[in-house]
Amino acid sequence: MASVVWFDIAADDVERAKKFYGSLFGWKMDKMPGPKEYWHMDTGGSNDSPDGAIMKRQDPHQGITTYISVPSVDESTAKVQKLGGKIFMPKTAVPQMGYFAICQDTENNVFALWEMNDKAQ
Question: Going edge to edge, which strands form the sheet with 4-11?
């Protein structure tokens, strides 16, 4: 069964958002490596509970994106389209971690598909 494995929170002011979520829930924040400002949020749950990240908002309508684990991004994106959804960002590699695709459902909600694969390039 597919499950939620990650979430991204888009913020106009990343520092303000970090302070808000850190103070509200006690989540710890650490900058992730790479050229983008992307802050990992440790939600403090068990290993099987999702963590997330805060990042700079890239589109005025960008909100929270939920990542859902699937066995195959390719198969799942095909199914999204067959069911009337849209693909906003095609399959993209996160080196040595996996692949993701950003989708939109039939109600205009944005979500992401995530496929674990330590051989992703």
Answer: 28-31, 38-42, 51-56, 4-11, 64-69, 110-116, 98-104, 86-94
> What is the reported pLDDT for 1?
80
| In contact, 101 and 112? CB cutoff 8 Å | yes
Query: What is the DSSP track for 35-95?
Result: SS-EEEEE----TTS-EEEEEE--STT--EEEEEE-S-HHHHHHHHHHTT-EEEEEEEEET
The pLDDT tens digits for 63-103 are 999 999 999 999 999 999 999 999 999 999 999 999 999 99
Picking from 34, 36, 35, the residue whose alpha carbon sits closest to that of residue 56 is 36
Distance (Å, whole) CA 12 – CA 10: 7
In the three-class reduction of DSSP (H, G, I as helix; E, B as strand; rest coil), residue 18 is classed as helix
